[in-house]
Design goal:
By secondary structure, the chain is mainly alpha-helical. The chain is globular and about 40 Å long. Helices cover about 65% and strands about 0% of the residues. The chain has a single domain, classed as Hypothetical protein af1432, CATH 1.10.3210. Helix 9 runs antiparallel to helix 10. The chain contains eleven helices and no strands. It binds fe (ii) ion (2 copies). The site of one fe (ii) ion has 5 residues, from helix 3.
Length: about 210
C-alpha cells in the first residue's frame, strides 16, 4: 500500500498541477499536519476519495472535490489543540470549539481557493444540528449555475467526510462511548441512517467498491 504522501503526489501529477498550486495545497495541508497528524491523514483521504466519488457522479469535476476535500478541515489548524486532539471526555465545550473550524477554514481560503472556501461551508451543514446556521453572503460574483455546483459539491464532501470519519475514527467524537473502529457494515448502516436523502448514491458507491 502506497503511503498517503505518495498517493497525494501521484494525484497532483495526474491533475498536472503546476508548482504554485501544489505549494499552495501543501502549505494549507502543512498547517493541519503541524497541529495534528490524524487530521492531515483524514484530509488527504477525503481529497483522494472525493475525486473517485466526483468521477462517479459525472456532475462535479473530480479536481473540484479533490481540492475541497484536501482543504475542508484547514480551519482545525486554528482551533484549540486540546479540543482537537481530545479522544476521551469530548464535551459540549469542545464541540463548540471545534465547530469554529468551518468559518475559520472559510476565512483562511477565501480569495485564494474561493470555490473550496464556499464548498467547505457546507460540509457540516446537512447533518442533524448542522452548522454554520447562517452561510456568509458571497464576497465574489458566483453564477447561479456555479452556486448549484458548490452546494452539491458540499453535499458530496459531507458524505465523503462522514464516510472517512466513520471508517477511521475510534474516538467518542463520532460515536459516544466508541473505543473501536466500526466495521464496514456498521459504517454503511450509519452513513445511510444519517444521510437518507442520498440513499441511492450511497448504495451505488458501495456497489462500485468506492466505499
Ligand atoms: Fe469538518
Ligand atoms: Fe473532516
Amino acid at each position: 500500500m502506497e503511503t498517503l504522501e505518495t498517493q497525494l503526489e501521484e494525484k497532483f501529477d495526474e491533475f498536472a498541477l503546476i508548482k504554485k498550486q501544489r505549494d499552495s495545497l501543501n502549505l494549507y495541508l502543512g498547517l493541519v499536519r503541524n497541529r495534528d497528524e490524524e487530521t492531515w491523514e483524514h484530509s488527504v483521504r477525503v481529497g483522494l476519495k472525493g475525486t473517485e466519488v466526483a468521477g462517479y457522479t459525472h456532475i462535479i469535476e473530480p479536481k473540484a472535490l479533490f481540492y475541497s476535500g484536501l482543504l475542508h478541515d484547514v480551519g482545525k489548524s486554528l482551533v484549540d489543540p486540546k479540543s482537537l486532539k481530545k479522544k476521551k471526555d469530548f464535551g459540549p465545550k469542545d464541540m463548540e470549539e471545534l465547530r469554529k473550524h468551518v468559518m475559520l477554514g472559510y476565512k483562511l481560503l477565501r480569495g485564494i481557493h474561493d470555490f473550496s472556501a464556499r464548498v467547505l461551508l457546507f460540509h457540516h451543514y446537512f447533518q442533524e444540528n448542522g452548522y454554520p446556521r447562517a452561510i456568509p453572503s458571497k464576497e465574489i460574483d458566483i453564477s447561479k449555475g456555479t452556486n448549484v455546483l458548490i452546494l452539491y459539491c458540499g453535499r458530496l464532501l459531507s458524505i465523503v467526510d462522514f464516510y472517512d470519519a466513520a471508517s477511521n475514527r475510534k474516538n467518542e467524537k463520532f460515536v459516544p462511548g466508541a473505543t473501536e473502529i466500526p466495521d464496514h457494515e456498521k459504517v454503511k448502516e450509519s452513513i445511510l441512517k444519517f444521510n437518507s436523502d442520498q440513499k441511492y448514491l450511497i448504495e451505488q458507491l458501495y456497489e462500485k467498491g468506492i466505499f
